[in-house]
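Extended Data, panel c. Modelled sequence:
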Amino acid sequence: MEKGLELKQSLRISGDKATFYNCKIYGFQDTVCDDRNKHFFKDCLIQGTVDYIFGSGKSLYLKTELNTVADTGITVIVAQARKSEDEDSAYVFVHCDLTGSGSGTFLARAWFTHPKVLFAYSTMGKNINKEGWNNNNHPERDKTVKFGEYQNKGPGADPKGRSPLAHQLTPEEAKPYLTLDLIEGSKWILPPPTPKV
């Protein structure tokens, strides 16, 4: 369990049942390698340019700011590396703030064949590309990606003009992703540590 960590370099987490509270993680490309297993990020700041959250973990990001620094090339928040329909991995972002400069940031791209990414109840700034999602120049992945959105708000959340890769979830479809049960969190997530006075 990490609390209040401030990193000016990349972070790789592959251990199971890891939590991060109030951490600031700054990088450029590949800021957080959310490699594999179950993780929970809450009240954090993660900053980068391209694929700055990537890997094949099964992770829940809650009330975390994702700040994209504009670059001359493409900017992408997530590159999730799920490789098959049977692989139990996903990145879910709930009540997050998507901030940053520029105007062409993609929420995620199909780095591998079966990425699973959901943004729910999040506030998306004007830096988010109106298409939102990208097949990484692999049109054959259009049928295998699982990109979803649910009840987001802000100038970058308008579903008009969104890529057909993304699905606007119904309440019933979104429900399994909006709980700690997604990562079996009720079995291992402890309350965040409180500072001693």
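The domain at 2-165 is CATH 2.160.20.10 (Pectate Lyase C-like). This feature is highlighted in the accompanying rendering.
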